[in-house]
Amino acid sequence: MSQALSDPGLCLIAAAESGAGWLARVGAALDATQARTLILTAPEHGAIDPAVARPLVALAQEKGIATLIADDVPAARAAGADGVHLSWRPEIEDAYEAARTALGPKAILGADAGASRHDAMTLGEAGADYVAFGRMSDAYGPDEARDTQRELVAWWADVFVVPIVAFDAETADDVRDLVRDGADFVAARLSVVTPAEGNAAWASALVAALSAPADAA
Q1: Burial category of 49 from C-beta neighbours within 10 Å (exposed 0-12, middle 13-18, buried 19 and up)
Q2: How many angstroms separate the CA atoms of 6 and 205, rounded?
Q3: Could you please report the per-residue DSSP string of 114-143?
Q4: Whether 169 contacts 135, CB under 8 Å
Q5: Mind listing the pLDDT tens digit for each residue in 40-64?
Q6: What confidence score (pLDDT) does residue 2 get?
Q7: What is the pTM for the complete model shown?
Q8: CATH of domain 9-202
């Protein structure tokens, strides 16, 4: 088992929704989770509107939190984001090269390697700021998807120095396990439908899980 890191962090994933209420909820979640990064995704229906994303980007950046737009380079540039997160796809290496060319060397650019060690190594060698592993729930059953992700996180943490981000954490137990496996960051999604009180309890549990003691070696 990989040694748990001394200072792992959380990435908050939130939809680029409009409205003062959602802006306030994202701000509260950033504070409550002590997030290091905000990743904005498209709303359930439609693409990311830069005009909608811009206040969320500004909110996070005012707190000193880097903000990435998922899978939309033009929207990231128009919204003033710090970079882009690329979700896994079969052509992830080509997508990374195209995004890096468009954004330049100073932008933050990370990518999900799916369940491919080859893609992960290629992305790391190409200069990705981080490599991510999500749960391939479409390809595996829930238990196998979780186990595969944990194995990949532990493998990467043992061998490589490029930061590793574990996506799709849903519970405090997920966060605790992935940190113990060696994840530098764990990414968790802020629910649009959960009441604010529920989001606060969720955030508190995630933060506590980050600092849970590692299993004995």
Answers
A1: middle
A2: 18
A3: TT-HHHHHHHHHHT-SEEEE---TTTS-HH
A4: no
A5: 999 988 899 999 999 999 999 999 9
A6: 37
A7: 0.91
A8: 3.20.20.70
